[in-house]
Amino acid sequence: MFQHTNTCRDNPELIRVIGTAYPGSDLIFEVVTDPQGLQYHARQWDLLSYNLPHAMPMTSAAWQICHINNIHSDDRDLHSIFIYISDDLVGVLPLLCQKTRRWGRLSRCYTTPHSSVDILSWPGMEDTIMKALSRYLNNKSPRFDYLKLRMVPADSPSIKSISSQVKFCRVIRELGGYCSYLNTAGEYSEYTKRQSSRFRRNLRRVKRNLSRAGKVNLKILTGLEADPEVLDDFIRMECSGWKGRAGSALECQHELMSFYRDLVPAMQDLGWLRWHLLELDGAVIAAQLAIQMHGTQYIVKIAYDEKYAGYSPGNILMDFVIEKAFTEIETRFINCITCFPWNYNWLMEKYPYYNFFLYPRRLETTLFRWLPHTMINTARGLYNRYFRRFLPFAKTIGKTNPSHNGACCRMKK
């Protein structure tokens, strides 16, 4: 194991040492309640995250610290748990604690930060870490109503460990969402043959039109060349389009922009940052903010210059990036993190994430938390299974058939 070089155990203002997890255990729990205290664990946290089989940039210290520092809600207290064996970090669970008044009493609810995150455990120690966390949360942490683990990847070993090791809680698992990914094994020519002929035809057309407008060039910046200052051009391009008009661009969301301004140099320091730039006569007209980690390119953000929207610069850049990825030995997958309809144009597959809710086996928590949650899920399942199939028919009852009304037909189109 790597050595623990940064410690804050001598600084009681930043960290609280819990001690051993249970009698006879070599595991030492340290709880950080001040965001500044996270920096003392950052190096080992990043190394632990990078060495996991299911490593993702969202589980790294760099990502989580930037998120907590910039998007940390005032009504939630930090409660990050670090688990050591001697001076070696073997487990991490970043948590936020929200305190509210419910039914006349103080209620504590733990959640992981709002991003794709997981319980980090040293490979082979997943069950041990989960069992120790379970005992700590049950015996030594402040009394809580539930613990929510957001966006746990489907292939995470934590899923099996939660089912087998968490005995003091009732566990509810829900689908949290999907990400889209593309396997870049094989030949690019074979990949394009499987795409829609209409989509490829339109792509060739806009490429020809753009090449007539000037010299087209793809630039990929990695390592020391991945200058964080490129983010300024990226923010300008993103704000020029529909995101700026809709108010969803980074420039319109100051907390999110601060997050990315901290994240980009942090990713460069780790050597994970990539910029994919599409240039026309030397001017950038489309860009992708990406992170390269463990053979996977994570496309974090995309933007293009609204003036060139007619050329579909975002699609042209994505095609160039995919073609390049098929030739790179170090790239096996392209992961778009989110899942949108346009991803299917690139034959991307869906990959699920799950949310876990852990409710302590106490009477009040069972009656007022776990039982309502279970009833809502049951009602939702019955609705999807029995009623939803009849919903389109139910909506047409008592309405004019659009096929008999030319004006209605034109409006629907």
| Annotation field: number of helices | 13
How many domains is the backbone divided into? 2
Kindly state the percentage of residues in helix: 25-40%
Instruction: Tell me the overall shape.
Output: globular
Give the oligomeric state: single chain
Topology (SSEs and partners):
Elements: E1 15-20, E2 27-32, H1 42-50, H2 61-71, E3 76-78, E4 80-85, E5 88-93, E6 96-102, E7 105-111, E8 120-121, H3 126-139, E9 146-153, H4 157-165, E10 169-183, H5 188-194, H6 197-213, E11 216-222, H7 230-240, H8 242-246, H9 254-270, E12 273-280, E13 283-293, E14 296-304, H10 313-327, E15 333-335, E16 349-360, H11 363-387, H12 391-396, H13 406-412
Parallel strand pairs: 7-9, 14-15
Antiparallel strand pairs: 1-2, 2-4, 3-6, 4-5, 5-8, 6-7, 9-16, 10-15, 10-16, 11-12, 12-13, 13-14
Helix pairs in contact: 2-9, 3-4
